[in-house]
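DM from R.C. (forwarded with permission)

"hey, sorry to bug you on a friday — could you get me a structure for this? deadline for the figure draft is monday and I only need the backbone to look sensible"
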Amino acid sequence: MNRTERMKKKQKTWRNILLSCFLLLGLIVGYCIFQYRYGLLEASVGPYTEDQSLNADFQGAEPKFGEINILLIGSDSRGEDHARSDSLMIAHYNQHTHDFRIASIMRDTYVNVPGHGKQKINAAFAYGGPELMRKTIKENFNVDVNYYAMIDFEGFSKLVDMVAPEGIEVDIPYEMSYGIGMTLMPGKQMLHGDKLLGYVRFRHDRLSDFGRVDRQQEVVSKLKEEAVSVQNFLQIPRILGMADPYIVTNVDTPTLLSVGKGLFEAKSKPIETIRIPIQGSYSNETVNVGAVLKIDIEKNKQTLIDFLSANGEETK
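My reply, with the result:
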């Protein structure tokens, strides 16, 4: 075989490799589109099917140094236009270290809501949606939130069943029933969507809302472990399609892919958690807006800033 023939064979080989790569890429894109649309078909009409108007109002700062703060809001509006947020978290992700942290803020925390005076922090959502909640967190804790994601609780149940079809294992310490529309019996067991939602929403025990926050953080950590499995990696487009009617967010696709990639790369890393207010930094009081947690603002502000920084450590 002369040199010319060898060159032609080499060019043909590279051409075939490139064609194969383009074909593979086309198949992957086609698969993702099909799975996403299939997920949309599986989902029923949710509260955020047509509502993306909140995105235009949110004025989150651009992320710096590869550190991202996402405001997570759990809402059970039940048809109300101005429902208060039922759960409130700040999810922190470091793109360099792949550290993932969750800071839960108690909904009865007594803070200053810009334009509305002293209120429970969850009132900020009722008065001005995610943007006013962002401003409230910035004013009281000096923490910049870059993005937000708001999920309806019906969507939470559906996502749990897709991410963890076998259920999530929990150990229920005592009977739970009041206020959740079901009865959960004590003992170690696997809970699926609706029952797991009841588990994380129950607050009528000796720990009140503090126990509920602990259960929310427990379930988020276990769902993360399920989500990074190979099986669920292949289902991501379908999961996103099914979640679409129940979630409204301004997280852009590149950021979403970056966070998802990081979680898979560091799937063995546990999620670090914190609760605000921290132990010993608040008092239970009754004011004009009802029962509140009156907190040491400076102490909790510094603790939250430290936790969401590169040197933060787990605190309860």
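R.C.: lifesaver. Residues 3-42 form the longest helix (40 residues).
me: no worries. The CA atoms of residues 168 and 276 lie 26 Å apart.
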